[in-house]
Amino acid sequence: QNKPKIVILGAGYAGMMTTKKLIQKFRPEEADIVLVNKHNYHYQTTWLHEVAAGTIDINRSRIMISDVINTRRVQLLQDTVVEINREDQKVILENGEIDYDYLVIGLGFEKATFGIPGMDENAFTIQSVDKSRMIREHIEYQFASYKNSTNDDGDKDHLLNIVVGGGGFTGIEFVGELAEKVPELCNKYDIPRNKARIINIEAAPTILPGFDQELIDYARKSLENRGVEFKTGAMIKECKQTSVMVGEEEEEIKAGTIVWTGGVQANSIVGNSGFELTKGKVNVDEDLRAPGYENVFILGDCSWVMDKESGRPYPPTAQLAMQEADTCANNLKALIQGGPLENFVFDNKGTVASLGGKHAMGTVFEGKKLFGVTAKAMKNVIDDRYLFLLGGPKLVLKKGKFRPF
Ligand code: FAD
Fold first, then answer.
1. Is the CB of 256 under 6 A from ligand 1?
2. Of the four, 57, 169, 199, 208, which is 20 to 30 A from 64 by CA?
């Protein structure tokens, strides 16, 4: 008997949670489930700013997929997706190909640099464990180089400057971690703290556009108190190897490390496979399917889902990706076994941004604002809740963040 084959691409928040839900919904004789991922581990994308700054161990952010997914029920395929052939219902992989009856695309994001000259070539991005590890190693290398440089006429000072392009959620969480890490590095390499600069550059008039003003003010003050400098309303015009050109006057800011967090788009495999993109992502139907494709769902950072109330897409978050996984699994069940498909409805549980160490801020429970240690404790609860959903109490004990700081 021919069983339908469901193939899930990407073991991020969307892919992992869809797989978990499908295991609950289908008996083994009802559907084959295959999860394709580049690595044999899942990583916590929401912790990558900590990996990049070097404030948590790399392994803390990684979870072996086989530890949390039943491999007798799901076939795990460790391979890299190259292209999706929609007409033949096939996925081309680096080491072969796989066909599907139903496809779930959860391949995550890539940086969007909006054509800023040099940004692609010269800036790092906080995108995967490996790319984040490059950043932490590079920053430490610059501190070591500074210490060993014999050039004493001030020319080596820029090695210690870290420029972060983009003052959105990721950029701000990252400079928060740097505010904790840089003093540690200064100590380690015996360098005065005021020699190393952390500079955040944002084109919009404010950091964290879209956030509540009181939260923005709190974040900015907290970070400035710990030595972060901000340039807002300042567009990066060009990124060179060791500097960025900023604003209409093209002020040159030299830096040993440049990290771009200013924009994301869908994994380029999606566009290259012929799915129509709007501002870098696929505008999916209300039931999360790709327009025109009855058997293809696109989730998480690869897609936009419209918020009918505001008329704008929901911001891309892990929270959104996980909720989409629920709807996607329900809709696959309906497609395969009959029944109406449901439309996705987002239940916003709030957002908390960490600002490094014991500092954080955000909103929970329909707009209640939290600051400082209370916000940090809530952030840890959110992180632990995800671990619980993924791997139960065992995973929380192994990787969780129980303490408020
Ligand atoms: P991802 O979680 O990025 O997963 C994509 C997966 O696809 C990865 O496992 C990757 O290895 C795999 N993959 C990619 N390419 C291939 C390929 N070619 N072949 C095979 N596999 C491939 N959101 C929140 O809700 N709260 C937060 O606090 C928060 N903080 C964040 C902090 C940072 C630093 C960043 C970068 C993002 C943060 N976000 C946060 C956003 C959130 O992480 C994303 O929205 C979320 O990860 C999207 O989930 P996803 O499943 O679409 O993609």
1. no
2. 169
